[in-house]
């Protein structure tokens, strides 16, 4: 839906890939509604257990987002997605891929399943 603007920026710093990511929905949702957040660098999946999402003073490992009903992702703010890398990539331009799946809790099918909006985006980062 909003993939064109999903990744505002991508940079390499302090041994990590850092992305500014926009929410792929037009209304704020709790962080527990982030069902999928996957990052790739040059086509290789980066480990979710080394990926965090930060919004203001809230910082959470991706795997713990399902329990974060206490924190919301305001639609006007970009979240910082940080992936700690084992090693920085070689010098040059690299492709970053992002998949963001957001559950929309108030869009429910007759069977009781909430809609999940999944968007993919690409960005470039240079070292």
Task: Provide tags for this entry.
127 residues, Immunoglobulin-like, four-stranded antiparallel β-sheet
Task: Explain this structure.
With 127 residues, this protein is mainly β. It has a single domain, classed as Immunoglobulin-like. It contains no helices and eleven strands. A five-stranded antiparallel sheet has the order 1-2-9-6-7, with no helix packed on it. Strands 5-4-10-11 form a four-stranded antiparallel sheet, with no helix packed on it. The protein has a two-stranded antiparallel ribbon with strand order 3-8. Strand 1 and strand 2 (16-21) form a beta hairpin. The model has no long low-confidence stretch (mean pLDDT 94).
For the largest sheet, list the strands in their spatial order: 1-2-9-6-7
CATH topology: Immunoglobulin-like
Number of strands: 11
The CATH class is identified as Mainly Beta
Could you name the ranges where pLDDT drops below 50 across 5 or more consecutive residues?
none
Class based on secondary structure composition and strand pairing: mainly beta
* Whole-number total of structural domains: 1
CATH architecture title: Sandwich
The helix fraction, in percent, is: under 10%
Radius of gyration using CA atoms only: 15 Å
Mean pLDDT across residues: 94
Name the overall outline.
elongated
Strand % is: over 45%
**Number of helical stretches of at least 4 residues:** 0
H/E element string?
EEEEEEEEEEE
End-to-end distance, in Å? 30 Å
Largest sheet: 5 strands, antiparallel
């Amino acid at each position: 839906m909003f993939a064109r603007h999903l990744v505002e920026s991508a940079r390499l710093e302090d041994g990590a890939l850092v992305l500014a990511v926009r929410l792929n929905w037009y209304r704020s949702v709790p962080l527990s509604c982030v069902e999928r957040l996957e990052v790739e660098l040059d086509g290789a999946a980066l480990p979710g257990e080394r990926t965090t999402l930060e919004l203001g003073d809230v910082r959470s490992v991706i795997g713990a987002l399902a329990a974060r009903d206490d924190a919301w992702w305001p639609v006007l703010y970009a979240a910082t997605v940080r992936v700690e890398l084992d090693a920085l990539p070689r010098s040059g331009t690299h492709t970053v891929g992002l998949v963001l799946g957001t559950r929309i809790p108030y869009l429910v099918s007759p069977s009781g399943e909430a809609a999940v909006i999944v968007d993919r985006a690409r960005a470039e980062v240079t070292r």
